[in-house]
Amino acid sequence: MTPTVLQSASATLDVAAFERKLRAAKAATVPLTTATAAQKNAALRRISDAILADAGRIIEANAEDLERGRANGLSAGLLDRLALDERRIMALAHAVDDVIALPDPVGTTTRGSRLPNGVSIQQVRVPFGVVGVIYEARPNVTVDIAALALKSGNAVVLRGGRAAESSNRLLVDVIRGAIAEAGIPADAVQTVDEFGREGGTLLMQARGLVDVLIPRGSAQLIRTVVESSTVPVIETGAGVVHIVLDESANEHWAVDIVRNAKVQRPSVCNAVETVLVHKAAAQRLLPSVLTALRADGVTVHADARAHEIFPDSIPVTDEDWATEHMSLDVSVGVVDSLDEAIEHIRRYSTQHTESIITDDLGNAERFLAEVDSAVVMVNASTRFTDGGEFGFGAEVGISTQKLHARGPMGLPELTTTKWIVRGSGQIRE
Amino acid sequence: MTPTVLQSASATLDVAAFERKLRAAKAATVPLTTATAAQKNAALRRISDAILADAGRIIEANAEDLERGRANGLSAGLLDRLALDERRIMALAHAVDDVIALPDPVGTTTRGSRLPNGVSIQQVRVPFGVVGVIYEARPNVTVDIAALALKSGNAVVLRGGRAAESSNRLLVDVIRGAIAEAGIPADAVQTVDEFGREGGTLLMQARGLVDVLIPRGSAQLIRTVVESSTVPVIETGAGVVHIVLDESANEHWAVDIVRNAKVQRPSVCNAVETVLVHKAAAQRLLPSVLTALRADGVTVHADARAHEIFPDSIPVTDEDWATEHMSLDVSVGVVDSLDEAIEHIRRYSTQHTESIITDDLGNAERFLAEVDSAVVMVNASTRFTDGGEFGFGAEVGISTQKLHARGPMGLPELTTTKWIVRGSGQIRE
């Protein structure tokens, strides 16, 4: 553990005030770590109630953000993501209620044994301590992540998008007031939004004060955090997601799964971006698969062989293969073999999710074994890579890294473990 | 995942050659990931045999290191750590045999279920891919870590201490030759020692080519890696380890445990550095505990109250409290309460291991719950924080961080997981 001495190049930034906030969050971890599930649930219940009770004030604060956003020329899409109304505020409160219903991961024994000398060892789940979250302009993340952090016994330091600053400030106030009433220190929830851009930079350097940092948002945001942070980061991720249509693929499944994976919700990370089809199946499958996509307004970026079979397409570029479009665009290529498909995935995938549609058992097993992604699938839609779908009940994010958590993360992924050793005077021989 | 473009400020360094080595290691992960335990064990058997068969050449190469070390004025202790003889080479081979005996963690199903729609999901252990290791001048680490990496299906890129360069080069040659004979690509084991200091720097920047980096060695080395690396790091750690003698501590246990924790092997990270005693027990415990330590040649660094009780001591400094001495030195302080002891630990501990000696159940439980360290103990020697003692069979290191692994690491901690999803045409509603 490295003692942290925060420094800033900016003369205007009050680094001492920033550090005080982080130390207050750290101090709040002491009672939080030992809080019972009942105490944490009572605090969450207060949050849910307070959000509903303060709906009017929240909407007023949100109106300031919307007004500033319109003045700054924010797109209609971004303004929509930012906007809160009565209905969305009820959804915020319900999201907190959902977290109340989740089992508390803290205290679970994950392993344990009695050593030959009689010493008992037990590995138990404990909170991380202080979780930092850097995210973009969606006020619902403020509430979601605070609720998930508290339920898993963590203090949380939030750095939200500037566009949602007024909404977030008020939401944090409401949350802090609510948990204090339930006997959890208000300082367990902090925002560093008032420190602006530099606040995010300082947060990334706060090793020893912040135990883990989770960026949520664009690929650019995540990359910046991953590259700049000395605090350990859980990378949640961009998805350049592939579906491979093997020689033996069932046409009906191919059409349904590709369409579902591309069209059902194109703006999310588990939506498919690239379809690779075996050359022996291209004539059989591409017309029906791509016609279905076109009917839903998808633009097909095709390589030369795919274009020949499906002329209603534009040329795919090398950049397309590497891009998470998050839109109604799909890249399509014809490959000579399963090896070539796997090689393409190895080159361009962000190691999020890949699926193969096949009736060939050997190819299915090879794909599952050789593709190095967080989630690998056979004959299923990539849209299933989701904490809710996996039955975790919570949406902490989808990790595309290999340390600590990989794939959809539930509440247990917001905890670490400690070893508890109980002896009766034993020493090592 | 960030595509890596390695860059170096040094004109003399052949960055392209460096990158080729890493890409070769990455390519070797493909067959390694799917290698069976039998194949990996056969390769390990060849390594063990080859080390014994090549003992003469290894000792010759080691003699070059020793000669250079003597010329450079290395201390007797460092020369001893560096030296290999017939007996130590047999120990190297036996360490590989021990790894053969360990169960293969790859392929273990850690969780799984069938979703309501019939899709089956399964979380299985898979290798990281490429593990980078940066360590200091102990040639045994070269063999140990290569064996552990291979057994867990990982390729490994080694950056050893310059003082052991000739020994390491030959050991890597021997290992590469041995595994190639067993059908595992030689490129699964790489050294980048020939790139010197800059090689380590490049390794820390090789995000996307190296999946995880493990520094092993001094606190300074570990801190450098943790602060400079963009590759995810598993921090194995320095131990400023505490023992608290509570008011009710059994004197016999206190003497035995403190003595064992300090004297049995003072140069390791689980040795105790600081003893804190409750003021109500100081008169009763300190004389016998510290007399026993003095008899074993320990220098006692005492605070004012401890010095009054045990005058055969020198003053403790603030730096002492924060120092991992790794020598026959111990810092001793008297505290007014358990709270003060916990507060002291919170301030100075490296969160490795802390133990309390007590007969008071409430204080024991408070200590276990409130001390935020990888291993917390009651009435046991801190020397038990060890993979071997915990029954893991392997010594990968002791993690002092909270992500991925915490405390003693066994072979499973050298793996990640992936989710395998099997459907029959399911799409998301």
Automatic annotation (TrEMBL), chains A, B:
The keyword NADP applies. GO terms for molecular function: glutamate-5-semialdehyde dehydrogenase activity; NADP binding. Keywords: Amino-acid biosynthesis, Cytoplasm, NADP, Oxidoreductase, Proline biosynthesis. One of its GO terms (cellular component) is cytoplasm. This is Gamma-glutamyl phosphate reductase. Catalyzes the NADPH-dependent reduction of L-glutamate 5-phosphate into L-glutamate 5-semialdehyde and phosphate. The product spontaneously undergoes cyclization to form 1-pyrroline-5-carboxylate. It is found in: Cytoplasm.
